[in-house]
Amino acid sequence: MIDATRSLLTAIDPGFASASDAEVVFALAVGSMLAWIALKFVADIARDAAKFAKGQVDQRFWREPGKIRILIGLVLLAVAYGFYGADQPRPLGEALLDLGRNQFLSIMPIAILTQWLLLIMFWLLFGRLTGVPFKELLKPVGTIASGTVAIALELAPFTLGALALIGGDTAVAAAGFGAMFALNLALALLTAARERRKPPEARDTRFWVRNPLALALLLTVLLSVLFVLVAVLVAFAYAVYTFFTGSGPAALTPAAVIRGELVAVSVVFLVSCFRFRSDSLTEVEAPPAVLHFADLSLALSAAFVAATGVAGSPVVLGSVPPWLLAVGPPLTVAAMVFGIYLTRMRDATPRWSVCLAVSVAAAFLVLPATKGVTALLALFLPTVTAPF
């Protein structure tokens, strides 16, 4: 039992190979406790995710073209990044294997975050072109973006602080956790100010709401514990994988843990895309064509990404020209959006022709959006590079 535990722990840290039996038992006890807490936490998240998935199935989300196009757009963007980011010709099967086996964890966060950013940008752009007041357009953006962006903003200083703490740089660690506390203090002050604007009988009189400093400290501690649990779970899963696959002991680097955290956060952003799609037109009186123009631009964005990289990384499928294989799928989706939806909405959509011209030009926004997302992720993972 101890030898098996030692082998499992060695997959996390090779230093356990020379640890005493007492140290192994202690590490097992502490690790088991943390793993149980992390698994319970993940189980709660999985239960909520299952409820969300069940709700989507009960509502037959596949009958909602908007949600399907979110998934299609994500696949097109991920394939464009994965297929045409390497400087080598590959058969289609090999490109798919590379994407699923070697590139998935690095490509998906970039694809999801880029799609999330472009969806919001296109919503604001085409909403204004069709005459919707900017204040109205911001309503669903604030609802959806506040929570997801807050998670990302909280994770950023925590990650920098935790990595600095592991590396022994206490000054940077203090700056990271201090920035996290400052962010939570700002949120706590906003909460207190919002409560003060309410009538006295409707105010929340709980201690945490009336004391912003205490609330900020509580949020900082709770979120730090939450992120640590996610990191522990990633480490545990990685150790189990290396142990049972026989891939040999390997040191779990902070970069690997951060990559796992980024994937988890990216899932939150993907869910927010679904919610944004469902809530935007119910909260705002905007022409339905606004989101269809966004879909058109997203499909053209994937085509642009593929077209820029096909010369350096052609994907081969028999006698099919590589350029057709690259731009064919996204242009087909764009043609379907245009032919099925936008053409019949021409008379009911203000400035339809202008929106159509802008939707083609807006596809090029994928380049700065991808560069920006990549630069943001590179703050935590220096190995992340732009797909093109």
Automatic annotation (TrEMBL):
The keyword Transmembrane helix applies. It comes from the Bacteria. Keywords: Membrane, Transmembrane, Transmembrane helix. The chain crosses the membrane at residues 24-46, 67-84, 104-126, 147-166, 172-192, 213-244, 256-277, 289-311, 323-342, 354-381. This is Uncharacterized protein.
